[in-house]
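Quick illustration, no need to memorize.
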Amino acid sequence: MGRGDGTGRIVSPEGADDSGTGILHVDMDAFYAAVEVLDDPSLQGKPVIVGSPEGRGVVSSATYEARRFGVRSAMPVSQALRLCPMASVVEPHFDRYVELSARVMQLFRDVTPLVEPLSIDEAFLDVRGARRLWGSPGRIAVDLRRRVRAETGLVASIGVAGTKHVAKIASTLSKPDGLLIVAGADTEEFLAALPVRALWGVGPKSAEALEGRGIRTVADILGTPAGVLDRILGAATAARIRRLSRGVDAREVQTERIEKSIGHEETFHEDIADPGVLQVEVLRLADRVAARLRANGWEARTVSIKVRFSDFTTVTRSQTLAEPTAVGQRIGAAARELLAALELRQAVRLIGVRAENLVPAGAGGAALWDDDAEWRSVDGALDDAAQRFGRGVITRAALLRPERSIRAVSHHPPLPRADPGGSP
């Protein structure tokens, strides 16, 4: 597989055979970092890290110039700067990323209505029905890359194949700024040389189990008796992996994707040991989660918290609610209850709140008596104020505590990354 720093990339020559294809996977290269360079051309060609330069910020994105020094997303900025001390560190501007993402996605939809966004910076496109308008899949990919660059100033890498799984692999191999086409007839040969870790659903543990038995490539999987794979991976997983190894993937491009969860986290600049302060932060995060639920028309059946201690030990706890909700107070109460039941054996480095098992708002039916009517009014006032003046201008009195002098780095990508299309 290609490397995250862009070395070892593979691209197709001009006019490559695209017969038997029709699925595109488009992935914007180093998206957050690319937007920052677009807005500040003096950064062009330099190592750039997107993240908070102070305290315990983590890397949200990095240019390929920085990645070649070993910088990776989710790495502490302090560690990234040790690897690449000459890098420029810029604060993330999420509103700007959302704005440009919307423009890019519209360019995709100009080509075909069959667009499945996976995250803020990548999507699948089914262009099989667009041939008469725009040409073959390979031609469409070439033109789309050119148009994205011309109209946004950003760079996209594209994989073209007959299935979502192979298109995703192809785009990864072509990065940065590349196009890789895998003709239908070439699919099995293309896959055979890849490491087992390239297959969707083969995580670190499964990969170690396979590699420990000498099964290192996709060709090795195809050459392994079915019964042996069943014993290593389990029958269901083994059957799926065998299908993917042959290039079989029946998943269609889904234009409507259900968001699986919504969450917010923050990493403190200094570890927090005071349970009262943590309770306030949990309520603050719960309000932000609830606001996003309401904005997107969802309610949550489950609330979970994530706590990372000073030694980096991380625990999660969850609670299923009696009824689905998008009320900040209700989500906050559940999160605070989970936190209160947790043994705080060390000071806390990171805390997060997540809403899970989402359902469309109102799916639970209308109750004869709404116990949350007053809290809904509070949420409505907060939403209205946020829309008019910006979030945080008006807040709950419970959040106005002296302890809020603490500093923290928030982690909240505008659109969460989903798995690539669900199970095949």
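Residues 365-370, 413-424 have pLDDT under 50 and may be disordered.
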